[in-house]
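## retry 2 of 3
previous attempt timed out at serialization; input unchanged, resubmitting
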Amino acid sequence: MAEAAEKKSAVSDVGAWGMNVVSSVGLIMANKQLMSPSGYAFAFATTLTGFHFAVTAFVGFVSNASGYSASKHVPLWELLWFSIVANTSITGMNLSLMLNSVGFYQISKLSMIPVVCVMEWILHSKHYSREVKMAVVVVVIGVGVCTVTDVKVNAKGFICACVAVLSTSLQQITIGSLQKKYSISSFELLSKTAPVQAASLLLLGPFIDYYLNGKSIVNYNFTSGPIIFILLSCSLAVFCNISQYLCIGRFSATSFQVLGHMKTVCVLLLGWILFDSTLTVKNILGMILAVVGMVVYSWAVEAEKARQKAVMTKTSLTEEEIRLIKEGVETNPLKDVELGENKA
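## retry succeeded, writing output
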């Protein structure tokens, strides 16, 4: 029974990661067509994210109303705090991309892995084995080699990047913490946070987008083409949001960051296949190194889990032995072996 449960859990884990990778890569490809100048030039990223969470909130509402999922109580102040952190992450990322070079933007995204590790150590006293730390370094180097090109830094861009990295890391850690604290599933938590994020992003998004690119969404020409891609983007975002909460709830924010860079590799490959993007030897070597790092990381995490399980098993056996010894002492009086008499 235990082995069957473990196999089922492993299949569910693979399914969660698969959903996240496929939906995330699909979302990036759809947004590339929607937002690029050669596509439909929909340059309103923050407002689009508001659309994403609005559709996600609607799906959550329908699910709760139909009885498919239960609605558990989470304090309003926690939802507001989470939404502030999450929206700061989205805005910070958009500002960082606007103010920094692509190279520095990629470096800031890579820095999330060690930042998440440090924050989990500070907030939850979490420790990592040497193998896990080495695997993280390999992944960071690999993804850095295949994505980082020009690196230009300015004061405003650096501040925005720092805010984006810290808020994104804190957001992902908070997702796992809230699920454990309130014993709430990933979808139930998402259905709680999505309406608050949708309302705030749809309210502030147009102003943020106007600041970022000087264009107003009111003046955009909504033809059938961009509308179809906006609907496609929102549909993929629902699966992406659900799978993100699911993965962080099942694993950790660090694992989500490390294995999440598989999406970076997939995006580079699909960009080469679908959009004729250049793929150099440097990119290929970096991707190979990143994949090797991810494999080593997965092995190291499983090895660490096996060690912890062995320690717990040994501890439980020792406690059982102590209990049996105590019971033996209470039921069977000690005998003096030499005299053959019972000791009072």
